[in-house]
Amino acid sequence: MLIFGHKLDTQKEFFWTENFKFKKGINCFFYDEKFIQKAKESGVKFGILVQNEDEVFLANHFEANFILFEDEKLARFGAKVAEFYLFDSKILLIVHTLKNLKKAFELGVDGVILKTHIQK
C-alpha cells in the first residue's frame, strides 16, 4: 500500500493547482480537460480528483499518474475498475488521518494520501 503524508515520507510532493502554474512534483486538480492538456504538454506528473464514475475512466485514459478520491464509495468503484482494466494510474484515497489503514485495504485502493500532504 502506498502511504503519502507520513512524517517520515519524503518520496513525493503533491501540489494543488487551480491555475496553469505547474510545479515540480505531482500537480493535483479536479478533472478538467484544459488542465489535463496543459499538464501533458508541460510534461508534468499529475493527479486528478474525480467526482463521478466517468471521470475515473477518463483520468486513466488521459494518463493521470494518480486518481484521487474523497468519496469512499467512488474509491471502491475506482479500485475495482482499475483492477479489472489494469490501470496504470494509482488509486489514492484522500484521508484526514493515517489511522485505520485497514479501511483502505478493504476498499481495494492502491494507497492513501493525507489531505494535508497536498500543498496549496
Descriptive notes:
This protein is globular. It has one domain: TIM Barrel. It is built from 4 helices and 8 strands, in the order βββαβαβαβαββ. With 120 residues, the protein is of the alpha/beta class.
Q: Mean pLDDT score, rounded?
A: 96
The SSE string, one letter per element, is EEEHEHEHEHEE
Structural class: alpha/beta
> Which CATH architecture would you pick?
Alpha-Beta Barrel
Output the strand order for the largest sheet. Answer: 1-7-6-5-4-3-2-8
> How many domains, as an integer?
1
CATH homologous superfamily designation: Aldolase class I
- Given the structure, what is the number of helices? 4
Largest sheet: number of strands, sense, barrel closure: 8 strands, parallel
Helical fraction: 25-40%
Unreliable spans are: none
How much beta, percentage-wise?
A: 25-35%
What value does the Rg take, in angstroms? Answer: 13 Å
**Shape call:** globular
Using the coordinates above, name the CATH class: Alpha Beta
CATH topology, by name, is TIM Barrel
Q: Count of DSSP E strands?
A: 8
Distance between the termini: 25 Å
